[in-house]
Write a structure and sequence with these properties.
Length: 216
Amino acid sequence: MRPAQSTPGDDGRPHHEHDDHQRHHQQHDRHPAPPPRPRPCRPAYERGDTRGAVRDPGPPSPGRRPGRSAPIDAVDRQLIDLLRANGRASYAELARQVGLSAPAVHERVGKLEASGVVTGYRAVVDPAALGLDVTALVGVIESDAVDDTGVEAALRAMPEVEDCWRVAGSEGYVLKVRVTDIPALEAAINALNRIEGVARTRTTVVLSTKWEGRTG
């Protein structure tokens, strides 16, 4: 085997012909290639947590509400009914009732939340257990010159007003008011009539509740 050839350098010392090639590899080793960019993954849907979810506005079409990626099918409606009846049902329990796998139900419920069909979960409490024994429906008749924004802000600030609907007709709003007793109801009505923009109110006292928050 022939010995490796060498030639004198500028300083008179010999160097091998492959020195430049070796230096190139050494420099390459000191500056490794950047790591590959991670591939995007599908969004993970968490039940009851739609923070950061992006709605697809999409063009409006028959059977499709703005912001929904696809029309609601029969399975979605069944899941909605089950969740309205029991918002704490597990995915496994929901899956058994609709005939799908738990991961498939997880994804469907996540999409219903992200698209705004399911807006949240809450505890339903017996008002009487909290001492709220009187329920009334109060119609609010507005004055001619009224700022709807100001009226609605004042209504929202009243803890006695549990629900508020904007309605057509002589009344501008219908409220569901819950209080402890009749004197408390009278005080709430007086407070409503003192709101700027409210001309008068019309109150119907609820004698008994046959059903409320219907789930089926």
